[in-house]
Every structure is written in C-alpha cells, then in structure tokens.
Amino acid sequence: SESDEGKRSADTQEESPPYHMIFSPAATINNTHAYKVKQAGTVTRICSGCKPNEARALQEFHDKYIQPLNDNFFLHLTEDFGLLTKRLGLGEKRHYKYMNKPYGLKDWMENVLGMNNATRAAQVEDGIVMLLDPDMILLRPMVHDFRQEETIFVQNKPRTKVVKHGYPMAQQDGYLDNRWMYLNISHITAGKGNINHVAGSDGPILYNSGPPYLATVRDMYRIAVLWSEYAPRVYDVFPKLFAEMFGFIIATTQLDLPHTLIKSLVVSTTGTRSREGWKYIDALSNDEICSPPPDAPLPIGLHYCKRYLLDRSFFSKYRLKKNYISCESPMLEPPPADLATREHTKAYVPPPHGHNMEIKWDAPNRTFELWQSKRESFMLCALISKVNEAAMHFKKSNCGEDANMTFYSLFTDPNH
C-alpha cells in the first residue's frame, strides 16, 4: 500500500538515500522500463481526475499487471486539478491538464510521505525525488550521484555533481526559453516576490530547468508547495503550453534553489544545436544508430515529446492506440534497421486522424540536414524498439495464445 511506501522511506537504511521516482501523470510503459533497467527505490505513477469506474479499472490493472513486476511500484490517484484557474477566481480559462503535475506531486508528498505532518520521520526529508514526465523511457537507472556517471553538464564546473539539500538538478530542455523572466512576477507571487536577483545570463544556466527534476524530499516539497501556488497564476497571465514549467522555475527562484542543469539526462529535440545529450548520438556511426554498442555512452532516457519522422517512418505518442499495452493491440512496425545509413533528408507527413486510406494521401514533406536526419533515425529506432519491448513483455507475461503479435504502422493507421 501507499502507507507502506511512506514507512519504507523512513525505515530503509541504504548507502544511497531512498529514491522516489514519480511519473506524473501515469503511463504504463514507464514501469516496464523501470523494471528492466532495475531502477532503485520506489516508482509511482500519479493519475489525476479519473472517474470512479476509470479509477477502479486503473487500480485493478496496476494490482494485476504492474505491482507484480516489483513490490516498490505504486499508483497514486488524485482529483483533477485542471480547472484550478477557474476555481481560484482567475478567469474562465480552459482545462489545463498539466496543472495536475504540481498539485499531484504535492498531494503525493503529503499523503504518502507525510510531508505536511510534523510528526513524520526526519530522515524522510533526506530521500531523493525524481520527477519525470509520462512520455519518458529509461535506458539505464536514474541516480542522484553523478560523480562516476557519464554526464554532460551545462557548466564546465557544475555547482555539484550530487543531489543534496539545497542543490537540486534537472535537465536543460532543448525547447524551453526565457519567457518566464518577462511575465508579471508580482502577480504570480501575489506581490511577495521578484526576480531582481536573477541575472539575465542565469536563466538558461541555473533556472531553465525541465524534467527530469531531481531534488531531496525536503527541497522538492518546498518547491511543490510554492509551485502549486504559482502555477495557476502563471496560467492566468500565460495560458499556453509550458505554463506549469514556468511556475516550477519561478518557484525555484523565490526559494533560492538554482539547479545544476544537465544536458544528457534525456534527449527529445533533434533540431537543437547545443542542448541535450546529442553528443553521444552524434558520435555513433550510422550503422550503430539503430543498434548502439553495449558500451556506447547514451542519455539516461528518451523524452518523446515531439513527432519523429524520416522517409515514411513515423512516431508520435498521440498516434499510439490507447490500449497499446494489451493482449489485443498489435505492435508498432519497426523502421528499417539501416535507416540511418540510408541518409534520408526528406520525411513525409502522415495523413491526419480519420483519413480514409482508400483516398490517396498526397503527403507533404519536411527536409532535414544529415546531422538531424541521424538523430531522427535514432529516436525512431529507439522509441519504437522500447515501446514494442514493453508491449512484448506484457503479452508474453499475461496473454498466452491470445497475444496479438502482428505489427502496424503509425504512418498508415488513421484510427489511432
């Protein structure tokens, strides 16, 4: 149970502090790869806003298929926080599902770790929270001590290589900018704060943090409390994607918690020139891209927040069938194993959802330079391989003769 998780956090004595990996919101694929890479600590999926029948089905699925993988895998259900801007009197803004990230985290930290309880065990605060997005896949275990890890830091001399009190870490995203520095900080902080102490150059070096976020339990709870307060007001003045991420950043500026930013926790944005861990991928030869050598340095994980396409190979999380991890769903058609060696510079855009495939689709196209084509090849091969690996593990473990072992293409399937 979740109470067992909180107790285990307080009682466990390890050389490393207890790890708490959080995927918010929930995604089934995460657990399979956390299991396969032998991720240390607890792994919790937070799901917010489920209707009663959905919550029952999700809990039953977790109990039957997920927790047997590892007793340290948990599911945490919360209310839907997506309409908070309206409830807080901040205007008739649309539902913003990403508001569940700060509030779901805070809810979990209070109800599982007891962080709002003065009688909690003091050593709970020394644990490490690793907050990931649901569209992230682990290639190897996440750690808090990077002194012996192959890592690309943003700064040549990082403030720390170990997550500890007062020293959080995070990914330097390939797509996040400094727009948060130009928002109405006085409104966001209810007139209590400013960012006068944050120099313009400090934004991208110390504060432009993105997931994964790593911090001690004590620091992450302080962030979660302020993040939950700020995020609705950020959305009030910036009702767009990244509002909750800007809320996280602004909370860390007010808590004086600059992050040691790492480029190589995950890769996501193939077109970035200087961010993320693409140095590892660029160093591979073309014939290694779809099957890297076991000793090749790679990012810790993949963040599939974009669409990836090359020639007619295509991947998008929004095109995956909703019951993809199941006995009945087919798996994804793999791209050619030699995709990178073909050096495609053109990608065809797949037909929109619901397109009648009997009608010819005159596909528009995008062009890439070879360096980006190589990265697109890596993401396509790695993502489809890992997603299929999760599906295959489920089928072999649970489906028997009922397992659908066929494949389908995200490019040609209009009924995702």
List keywords for this structure.
11 helices, three-stranded mixed sheet, globular, 31% helix, 416 residues, seven-stranded mixed sheet, alpha/beta, single chain
Structural class: alpha/beta
**Average residue-wise pLDDT:** 91
Main sheet specs: 7 strands, mixed
Unreliable segments (pLDDT under 50, ≥5 consecutive)? Answer: 5-14
Radius of gyration: 21 Å
Per DSSP, the total helix count is 11
* Topology as a string of helices (H) and strands (E): HEHEHEHHEEEHHEHHEEHEEEEEEHE
Assign a percent range to the helix content. Answer: 25-40%
Estimate the global geometry from the Cα principal axes. Answer: globular
Q: Care to count the β-strands?
A: 16
Q: What percent strand?
A: 5-15%
Distance between the termini: 34 Å
Order of adjacent strands in the largest pleated sheet: 3-2-1-4-7-6-8
